[in-house]
């Protein structure tokens, strides 16, 4: 699970439904919507999503997605989704979690039951403050404590932002779930960041074009539909050769599908099936190179046009 945001044209109706950030001056910013998405770890497909105003927290949107989680699922998330109530309620539903430890919570690995270096079992106690998303009756029904596992490891790779990461998880068995496996699993959490980047950059969802909230929502869901159709093609191609879906190129899939679409429109029967088999073959023959710990600094070579920034509403500039 992770969250992100999208921008849209500056119209009165969009501003009313998705107000711009408070730090932007009136007439200078753009409406922004926040969304949260549940993504499949194996295929990258978006299982469910919620979109709302920027004032709605990612965790609130996340709670609206819980109906898609089933007993036996394993949920990965960053520190924005880590809380006592979330972990407990999901565990009661049979959903295990691996979250990064929330920033304001400190842990001491000298306490609790040691499972190895920087790996221990610890008891989290129920907080005094009730989350607003739980009713008083639901909060009172929560257990007074829960046994969790905390794991800490260092990341000494050039270009990585985090140097020390502490995980908290309901996977408490050190034999079934070794520390190295949890480290590798949380590293794969970064894949949803890449999934959202494909949606926003590769598929141009970063700035929507709808001038009304209704069209904005339709445009948002249309992007997710097209994205999942692409992921479905990639997954079907994987079934034919066994290569991991994450090793296939979504940009290459878009390019090949765009080239093949006119041929599909004119083909029927056996010819269409042949074209489809050829398309799947091309998709699976275009793997992304295995590049672990790759460093790509975020610098732009091409300079933007040197226009001044709009710091007051446009009608004021016209008057000047």
Question: What can you tell me about this protein's structure?
Answer:
The chain is α+β, with helices and mostly antiparallel strands. 37% of the residues lie in helices and 18% in strands. It contains ten helices and nine strands. Strands 4-5-9-8-7-6 form a six-stranded mixed sheet, with helices on both faces. Helix 3 links the parallel strand 4 (74-77) and strand 5. It starts with a strand and ends with a helix.
Notable traits:
10 helices, 18% strand, 3-stranded antiparallel beta sheet, 6-stranded mixed beta sheet, globular, 320 residues, 9 strands, alpha+beta
Major sheet details: 6 strands, mixed
Global Rg:
23 Å
Helix content range of the residues, please?
Answer: 25-40%
Low-confidence stretches: none
Strand order of the largest sheet: 4-5-9-8-7-6
How far apart are the termini? 48 Å
The share of residues in extended strands comes to 15-25%
Give the topology:
Elements: E1 2-7, H1 12-17, E2 32-39, E3 46-53, H2 58-63, E4 74-77, H3 84-92, E5 96-100, E6 113-116, E7 119-125, H4 136-141, E8 145-154, E9 164-169, H5 179-187, H6 190-202, H7 213-241, H8 250-266, H9 269-284, H10 314-319
Parallel strand pairs: 4-5
Antiparallel strand pairs: 1-2, 2-3, 5-9, 6-7, 7-8, 8-9
Helix pairs in contact: 7-9, 8-9
Quick overview of this protein structure:
This protein has helices at residues 12-17, 58-63, 84-92, 136-141, 179-187, 190-202, 213-241, 250-266, 269-284, 314-319, and strands at 2-7, 32-39, 46-53, 74-77, 96-100, 113-116, 119-125, 145-154, 164-169. The protein is of the alpha+beta class.
């Amino acid at each position: 699970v992770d969250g992100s945001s999208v921008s849209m044209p500056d119209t009165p109706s969009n501003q009313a439904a998705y107000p711009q950030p408070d730090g932007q001056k009136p007439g200078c910013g753009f409406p922004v919507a926040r969304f949260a998405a549940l993504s499949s770890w194996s295929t990258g497909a978006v299982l469910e999503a919620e979109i709302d105003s920027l004032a709605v927290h990612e965790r609130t949107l996340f709670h609206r997605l819980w109906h898609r989680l089933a007993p036996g699922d394993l949920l990965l998330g960053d520190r924005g989704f880590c809380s006592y109530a979330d972990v407990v309620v999901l565990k009661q539903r049979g959903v295990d979690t691996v979250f990064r430890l929330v920033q304001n919570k400190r842990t001491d690995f000298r306490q609790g039951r040691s499972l190895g270096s920087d790996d221990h079992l610890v008891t989290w106690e129920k907080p005094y403050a009730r989350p607003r998303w739980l009713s008083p009756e639901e909060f009172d029904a929560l257990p007074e404590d829960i046994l969790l596992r905390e794991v800490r490891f260092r990341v000494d790779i050039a270009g990585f932002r985090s140097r020390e990461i502490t995980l908290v998880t309901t996977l408490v068995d050190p034999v079934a779930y070794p520390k190295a496996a949890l480290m590798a699993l949380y590293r794969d959490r970064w894949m949803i960041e890449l999934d959202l980047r494909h949606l926003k950059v590769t598929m141009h969802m970063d700035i929507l074009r709808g001038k009304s909230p209704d069209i904005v929502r339709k445009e948002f869901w249309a992007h997710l539909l097209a994205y999942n159709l692409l992921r479905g093609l990639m997954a079907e191609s994987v079934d034919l050769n066994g290569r991991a879906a994450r090793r296939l190129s979504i940009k290459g899939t878009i390019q090949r599908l765009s080239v093949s679409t006119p041929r599909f429109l004119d083909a029927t029967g056996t010819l269409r099936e042949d074209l489809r088999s050829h398309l799947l073959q091309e998709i699976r023959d275009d793997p992304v190179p295995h590049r672990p710990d790759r460093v790509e600094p975020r610098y732009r070579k091409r300079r933007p046009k040197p226009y001044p920034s709009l710091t007051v509403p446009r009608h004021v500039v016209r008057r000047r």
